[in-house]
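Thread title: Can someone regenerate the structure for this chain?

I was given the following input by a collaborator and told the matching structure tokens would be attached. They weren't. Posting the sequence so someone can regenerate them.
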Amino acid sequence: MSTEMEKTASLYRWLFRLPTMKKLLIFSLAASLCISITIRLIIYLSMPLIPNMIIGFIQGVSALFTPIVLSTLIVSPIMKGEESVWDRRRLYALSTICMLFLGTAYIVGAIASILANRITIVSVAFVFGASFIFMLRFLVIHAMSKFSAFRSSMVALTQPLLCIIAILPFQELTFSLGVIKLLTMFTITSIVFGFAALAYLWLVDRPILKMLKVSGVGFLYGFLLDWIENKPYVLEEKFEKIGEEASLPVLTLLFKDSNLLNSVLVVPNIHPGPFKTVGSSEMPYIIAKEMKEKTGAIVSVAHGPSTHGQNLVTANEIKKVLKTIENSLDQSNFVSKASQFVTYEEDEVKMSCQIFGDLALLIVTLSPISFDDISPELGELVREAAISEGIKDSFLIDAHNCGGEVVTPILPNSETAKKMVYAAKMAVKKAKSKMSTEIKAHAVQSKPDEFHKWEGIGPAGVTVHVVEVKGQKAAYIIIDGNNMIPGLREKIIGSVKKIGVDEAEVMTSDTHIVNAVSLDPKGYQAVGQIGDHKKLITMIVNMTKEALTNLKPVKISYNIKKVEKIKIVGEKQMALLTTQIVKSVSTAKKSLIILVSAALLNIILQYLLFIL
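Best answer:
Regenerated them for you:
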């Protein structure tokens, strides 16, 4: 993962989950009462305690708590819709947070009024707080909806306006300022804050808009819509605008016993991202499910050389992948020729190879060293190195099976890449010396509900392919997940070797259906990060036993086809997007000076016009 991608992924830290509606109601009422009673006790310390607290109670309910409830009820029908992230609970939570900001300004004003011996200040502070939460609500609502600036401002105005109306009957406001002055002050401060909010959003939006001609705030809204509501189309619209056409290869490896297709291994050079249901995130599961329904065979999907640049712009593009795979299934050139499973190690690089017919299937890992995606360019260099050893075809699987705190992609010009290319040549050479026509195989797949994506395992579950060549048994263990914690691969391999497997490799599909479902700083749970390791390993061992028991003679066929004119995000666009997102975040922090300046300007205006 690049530095910019790491910074982008770290933005998941900002996400949080809301309390239940019941807890929000209790908290908002309690906070409203505490704030109002505190202000009464500060301003009217000499007044009898019980009457003072009763007035504070009434004021808290009417001027702070009731506007939360009413504004939520008023705005809820307006905010409903297919492309909305706003339900009643989220609107209520926003109003509660805004009330806390208003209450803080109110308390500060009360203290200042006592210190300055001017009761007017508490009124001014309340108006300042009300106009400030108008700005806050406008920023949030405009950024998280498709509303125009005018419509967003009308929605944002509901709570602060209700607060102003509700506070009018209380003596300290009506006697000190008067209704006209108070409303005039609120209008002026709201206009200043409103323009500051528009300027702030424009500055934050500018980096992505300038480079990619699409709205950065729109990307944020699209992400939230998918993260919260599982609705990918807004974000996919953005990706489609910046995407490019490509032709990407897909390997389909078929195992047939007698006349029946036993199992299928699919390896697309298409990245299953970026997260949840957006783009190709669900691709491994969709391929496994659709092809199983079509063939009756067990279908698993491994991770080919690809990075986030090869993310599909929309989930609809997966149909082209399915069509290409379907066209690869109708084959008659099945053969009984394969090599044993071999591994060649070059320092940290572990390159496994098994030849099936004329195909050298390579699997690479750096485990226990953390690593991330292998670029398509490096995948092509490895393929060419394998073919140079006299084999007709080759395809690389990125095992994607060791991800620690920091994971980085492997690029073609790196020292690790050079070792991979050399290891591929040596692994193919080694495998060619171990060819045979004695081939048996069987595959077993877990139930879709065996694990949950919160544990880092997607709905395609776990698949175990066992291939026996001339007495040697090799297990291909594919988990529908996004990387694994360091050390888990070694535990799994050690466990299956105890039950009769000679060689094994554990891989993940790199599915991103498990991304953006947890609040982990990386945005996803790698396989093994949570959940019961023993349960997972026991299940894999039992599946491997079942596969070993049911081994049958098989014939093999393969096909490598390109998915033509498929639309991907693109390396350049993805790099620009991640860079500009980080820039937008940086701009957002720096541009806070605009909002601070607006606040200071309002304080000065209030002082000059209504306090002096």
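The radius of gyration is 31 Å.
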